[in-house]
Amino acid sequence: MAVRVVLGTQWGDEGKGKAIDVFAKDYDFVARYNGGNNAGHTIVNEFGTFKIHLVPSGIFNPKITALIGGGVVMDPSVLVKEIDSLVKAGIELEGRFFISPRSHLIMPYHRVLDGLYEAAKGAGATGTTKRGIGPVFADKVSYNGIRWSDFSDLSVLDERLAVQMDMKNKIMVALGGKAMDYAQVRDEYLGYYEKVKPFIKEVFPLVRGGLDSGKNFLLEQANGSLLDTDWGTYPFVTASTTLASAATAGLGVPPREIDSVIGIAKAYTTRVGGGPLPTEIFDDEYAISVLSEVAATTGRTRRAGWFDSEVTKFAAQVNGVTQIFLTKLDILSAFDEIKICTGYELNGKSVHYYDIDAYDLGRVKPVLKSMPGWKSDITSVRDYADLPQAAKDYVDEVERLLGVPVGWVSLGAEREALVEKK
Question: Which of 22, 49, 67, 277 shows the smallest number of beta carbons within 10 Å?
């Protein structure tokens, strides 16, 4: 039996989807255990290009059973679209894709409230995706959530939804929004339930039974470790726990069963929305144009920076990362000189990520080391030994700074654009 967690060690968008897609061939189960559809994993394989937000990325392996744990919140409209797109692409879901009835639903009022709250904060807005993630998690912990299990008894659903809509309409109107129609929301979500109902099943017996019978599990984190509610750059974070430990609460896998944690790290750093990004590039238009990307979920342009070993090392330590999966090394082929952050200074003193809050993190001076680039196309390389020496030196420096071995290096979006570092 093997239980492997795959997680992001930065602020998301590290390339977790590709890693899951690569690893899936060796596993029996793949599961999402946290977050919601504010996370997007891009998959490029023989079936096409997919931007997956809820369905586990390993679904493309026909022998795998895919699970969504109760720790995941979901917008049913997004879920239904994903299911339809996968079925259209020829992916068989019946009997191998299951959703926990404990999962909380993002309701229309959650999305509206997300936007109204951000607008009310003005200059203090935290840069949410406005997908309703914060409000749905707030409802979850304040006993106001709606779960798939509520739909099994319409009297329970009607009672709970009526109470919630009465409260939420008052709040939305007070913040300058419009009240929503109860019957319209109820009918819309009952329609979603009918489409999703065949996949709703308590997943704990599947998880426990699989563990007891020696099956292999691949656990898929959403978001990045530095967006964790407790250990991330609060308040510029997501609403859920994004660490490896969330697999217990969100799926039911005991901590002692996890035997490896793969940390996905992009070869540079990007971030969507607000919050500190210590290595952000402001004065090099060429570097910004090369490293900036468009986020798979929000469509927003990501802010770009050099690789930050300080935050990535912290993420590796707090998660117990056993190996690094380094992505997008090929993008750095555009540079004659590459910079890498080896630490921080604040007011002339050396500081670590964990010494300071998010506001001080936005004021630190990154200590940057320059390394020579390789200025050659490496996307077709399939053996680590064939990489240019400068590229291997860069990977070795990342490994040295993090104190964790690099196991894989991704050289492009395609599944086969990968080398294993022995």
Answer: 49
